[in-house]
Design a protein that fits this description.
Largest sheet: 3 strands, parallel
Distance between the termini: 22 Å
Number of domains: 1
Radius of gyration: 15 Å
Helix content: 25-40%
Shape: globular
Order of helices and strands: HEHHEEHEHEE
Structural class: alpha/beta
Strand order of the largest sheet: 1-2-4
Length: 148
């Protein structure tokens, strides 16, 4: 298992590898199996901020790397009211994920899924703005509900 916080698919932060590079390294070292991706929040914020790599291209790059291995792409709900990490941007991101995965699912069968049901979204992780921050240069905090 590899967990790296605040990692977009394309951009790198402070010299750390991006999600694509991490996944490629794992695959190059023989890793095969089920993938659980919690990606898209920083990517949609980067698109909002003017990145020249769009949401669809980002998702397609990850999926082409992973190939025919089973994937579960986790969605998040944002409590941030505006800006790059606003809920409206998260809806755009994960709506795009669902579209891309639906296309791939139709080609590959049911090995790819996205927890798109409203109940799954309500129970999922949420983003909140770090306290005392107006957000410049900081990634949001991922908050996982403890009562579930």
């Amino acid at each position: 298992m590899e967990v790296t916080g605040g990692t977009p698919i394309v951009e790198t932060i402070d010299g750390t590898p991006n999600a694509y590079q991490v996944a490629k390294r794992l695959i190059d070292h023989g890793c095969r199996g089920r993938w659980v991706l919690v990606l898209g929040t920083n990517d949609t914020a980067d698109v909002y901020a003017g990145s020249n790599v769009g949401r669809i291209q980002r998702i397609k790059e990850m999926m082409s790397l992973i190939g025919d291995q089973p994937v579960l792409w986790i969605e998040v709900k944002s409590l941030v009211p505006g800006g790059p990490y606003a809920e409206q941007n998260m809806r755009l991101a994960f709506g795009t994920v669902r579209v891309v995965l639906d296309v791939q699912r139709s080609r590959q069968g049911p090995a790819i899924s996205s927890p798109a049901a409203a109940a799954a979204r309500r129970a999922g992780p949420t983003l909140r703005e770090p306290s005392g921050s107006s957000f410049p240069g900081r990634r949001p905090v991922l908050a996982v509900p403890r009562d579930r």
